[in-house]
Amino acid sequence: MRMTSQREIILEELKNTDTHPTVDELYFKVKKRLPRISLATVYRNLEKMSELGIIQKIETVGSQMRFDGNPEFHYHIRCIYCGKIDDLPIRPIESLKDSRNVSLDGDLKNYKLVGFKLEFLGVCPECQNKQKQ
């Protein structure tokens, strides 16, 4: 994939945030630097960079898709109240890093495993503070 100036700016803006933004959130940041860019262009480029492993796409149950500028294998935790997503500072389970190396036993042995999703849920510090008040 050719790294166009649009893609470079989208990637820069994504890497300059630690909030795991939605497409809309990232679009508004990119639009400040590229006023004529469309939401569809940002979305298309994020999808392509995700497919190529340059960034991560985070799909969680019941919330908008988010993106992470860190392509390294790591876990995320989602706040059950506000939906905020943070990196989870625990070491990944080695046997799950490469799902192609996981062997399935029993009734599942006929499946070809192509991936997995492991979602950690919690209450973020901001929501904990709100609950105390």
Kindly describe this structure:
Helices cover 35% and strands 14% of the residues. It has two domains: 1-71, Arc Repressor Mutant, subunit A (Orthogonal Bundle), CATH 1.10.10.10; 73-133, Dna Ligase, domain 1 (2-Layer Sandwich), CATH 3.30.1490.190. It has helices at residues 5-15, 23-33, 39-51, 94-97, 125-132, and strands at residues 56-58, 66-68, 75-79, 85-88, 120-122. A hairpin with a 5-residue loop joins strand 3 and strand 4. Helix 1 (5-15) packs across helix 2 (23-33) and helix 2 packs across helix 3 (39-51). With 133 residues, it is α+β, with helices and mostly antiparallel strands.
At the fold tier of CATH, the topology name of the largest domain is Arc Repressor Mutant, subunit A
Strand order within the widest beta sheet: 4-3-5
Helix content: 25-40%
For the biggest sheet, the summary is: 3 strands, mixed
Question: What's the total number of strands?
Answer: 5
- Structural Rg: 17 Å
How is the secondary structure organized here?
Elements: H1 5-15, H2 23-33, H3 39-51, E1 56-58, E2 66-68, E3 75-79, E4 85-88, H4 94-97, E5 120-122, H5 125-132
Parallel strand pairs: 3-5
Antiparallel strand pairs: 1-2, 3-4
Helix pairs in contact: 1-2, 2-3
Summarize the structure.
By secondary structure, the protein is an alpha+beta fold. The chain is built from five helices and five strands.
